[in-house]
Amino acid sequence: MAAPRRPREGEKARDPRAAELLPVIEPIVSAQGLLLEEVELVDGATATVRVVVDYATGTEQVDLDSVAAVSEAISAALDEAEALEDLTSYELEVSTPGATRPLTEPRHFARNIGRLLELEREGQPDMLARLQEVTDDGVVVAEQRPAPKKGMPVKYSEPVELPFDAISRARVQVEFSHTE
């Protein structure tokens, strides 16, 4: 079974029914100091409304108390919303994008400065690189070089700027320990 398509850049809903929820959900998320990344409505015996939130800027992660607060506020608003008359029973899932989500917008990159990225580039080998800066046109990264021997510190190449349009795919690599 094919996975539903991800919203395109600038879109927040995958389908028209989920888009109908945006006027109810987005002001609540904004009032909590968060940014609405995505809304998805999944049909089933009980419909599921999935809401993904994040901070618009900075590198701080959204804490569980913030997710719980926005979840309660959204739940109350959805229960009252006339737009959901056909949605008599639903489950609400509110989460953050997760560490390994694809980085598709400049602000996604900016929220991950200092992190290790896996970058796919058209016609070039994949690259593991430390994200150092985000510019108007792209990112500045230092490519990670393999350690010469196990246990030796990782080395990085000189920083280079990659334009956004040269990056076909980018994901954060989860690190269990990192020291500069």
Structure commentary:
There is one protein chain. With 180 residues, the chain is of the alpha+beta class. The protein has two domains: 16-95, 2-Layer Sandwich (GMP Synthetase, Chain A, domain 3); 106-172, SH3 type barrels, CATH 2.30.30. 20% of the residues lie in helices and 31% in strands. It contains four helices and nine strands, in the order ααββαβαββββββ. It has helices at 16-19, 22-31, 64-80, 106-110, and strands at 35-42, 47-54, 90-95, 116-121, 127-134, 138-145, 155-156, 160-163, 167-172. The strands form two sheets. Strands 4, 5, 6, 7, 8 and 9 form a six-stranded antiparallel sheet that branches. It has a three-stranded mixed sheet with strand order 1-2-3. It is elongated. Mean pLDDT is 86; it is low at 1-9.
